[in-house]
């Protein structure tokens, strides 16, 4: 039993974190909203320098862990780039995204000429952006896409990989959110003392930190399952997505609350992180839809653990 | 990352599984809920079976008669016991998890020789005289006094929430010597429960079989040989005693077993259950997995020589909340049958039993609030959880 990521992945995460900080950290997300071209002009070259153009997550367990680690680093600064999709490329180099069954809507969908999108049943299509990104506060870079070619090989496993890497990005966001909340409550003085001295604040932080620690362990476990036994990992990946969504909802809410009014102001990173992570939480499926898909998957395929859990055989 | 059993863990898992399969028909049968003598017999018989098979004190060092299993192997062992629906640690709880490990660290050679083999064989039941009416989570506020009288000490005071006190032969007792406050003067004793002046009053609770008790000490004489550690050195002894318990119970394994067993029992009617219960069930399985992984993280840290206080508290928060969440999902699934108890209840009463015990999960052995205090203190000081 060794629940730790390999050293190579941790090193890449540290290198990526430095590179993203040099780009401005969360400020880069702020500037990309005003000028979306910084994604291609500033972020893409840095990712190339980190070696992501040549990183194949399926190559071996270390590569898979490295991909997850970069996604985590990206999530910590709301990097304005679809790193998870970019890491899951088809044979022609198109990025991949999992999409809702009836709609091809993808975060940063406008960034590439073509995408390969995969639906819940594994069916894949080549698509292209229909128009400009939404430009909304919660989905500034989200674009709808139209189908160019439906005669593409199914891509079940790449869909699982994309969902897993997206969850790692969410992990980075919530991990950073707790750090930001800790910094804020230690510095913010009310009633003559730092608000960190109030137990109501301390306990909310403790619960958030425990939730993030649990998500991190589950993300690691799922990565291992995906690498070791991808054909049976669908319930595991759905479980990770469900848990990531639920942890994000609760942790981000808490961390915003602990910031007071600052929690909704873009001058503060917590607000930008919370806005920018929304596409990952709503696409391809929101929480209850994910929970339903997970329950169905467990019924058919079971759920790896100490005891059997499938009910379909009866 | 590789969460498979190591070769040693795998071998232990298979060995334990084979042994448990072989004794399945001779495992002690659980008595009725309120049959105190029956439970005592049940739990000590099981401890003796563990001893005879060489598994007693699985996590105790070899030099003290244990198996010397690594923390991860200990968890594997507990998981397999749960898989086989083997008896819980029950009345052997304090001896195995508190008194024994404390005697190993603080006891005299004579104390160790007298008690450790007896605990392992199931011949001695222990209780823990820590909590008092005015000193629960804030244990340092304890008021029980031990007054020097010649070479002896005279103990006066009241303990409460003392598990299995009515069945125990021995008590690991915390009392204050001198006039100090807080941690000053706290001193540990090992006291025979048949000492004159000790009165045990059971507290009726939903846990059953007089699990909880009040214990009154009226001028109870404790000889110098009853001292455990130094006079006034009790606070560090208490920390030793409690450190062993944090991860010691693989509650998540019992949760998962019940979800699996009830899932199988409900399978023919699964489609008739409300859809929201299907998703709650899935969430419960995820919660169990997360609790298990946090426990693994802690034992892995222990194995690498860390003292994972914060990780252990995080795991405890997760596993005790998991206990209660799973209890609710199971009760929701069985509906009105949740009110039945005993052999005719769903899963022979295991679900009803689990729900009752789960109500104390976030209080027993250190409240969830204390765990949150440990976690937040580390977090606010710049530490990671």
What do these coordinates show?
The complex is a heterodimer of chains A (314) and B (385). With 314 residues, chain A is an alpha+beta fold. Chain A has three domains: 7-87, no CATH class; 96-154, no CATH class; 157-301, Butyryl-CoA Dehydrogenase, subunit A, domain 3, CATH 1.20.140. Chain A is 55% helix and 10% strand. Chain A has eleven helices and seven strands. In chain A, strands 1-3-4-5-2 form a five-stranded mixed beta sheet. In chain A, β3 (115-118) and β4 form a beta hairpin. The two termini of chain A are 33 Å apart. The mean pLDDT of chain A is 96. Chain B is of the alpha+beta class. Chain B folds into three domains: 7-88, Acyl-CoA dehydrogenase/oxidase, N-terminal domain (Butyryl-Coa Dehydrogenase, subunit A, domain 1), CATH 1.10.540; 126-232, Butyryl-CoA Dehydrogenase, subunit A, domain 2; 246-380, Butyryl-CoA Dehydrogenase, subunit A, domain 3. In chain B, the strands form two sheets. In chain B, strands 1-4-5-8 form a four-stranded mixed beta sheet. In chain B, β6 and β7 form a beta hairpin. The longest helix of chain B is centred in the last third of the chain and has 29 residues, at 275-303. The relative contact order of chain B is 0.09. The interface between A and B is large, with 51 and 57 residues.
Could you give a short description of this structure?
The complex is a heterodimer of chains A (314) and B (385). Chain A is α+β, with helices and mostly antiparallel strands and 314 residues long.
List keywords for this structure.
heterodimer; A: 314 residues; alpha+beta; Butyryl-CoA Dehydrogenase, subunit A, domain 3; 5-stranded mixed β-sheet; 7 strands; 10% strand; globular; B: 385 residues; Butyryl-Coa Dehydrogenase, subunit A, domain 1; Butyryl-CoA Dehydrogenase, subunit A, domain 2; 4-stranded mixed β-sheet; 4-stranded antiparallel β-sheet; 11 helices; 46% helix
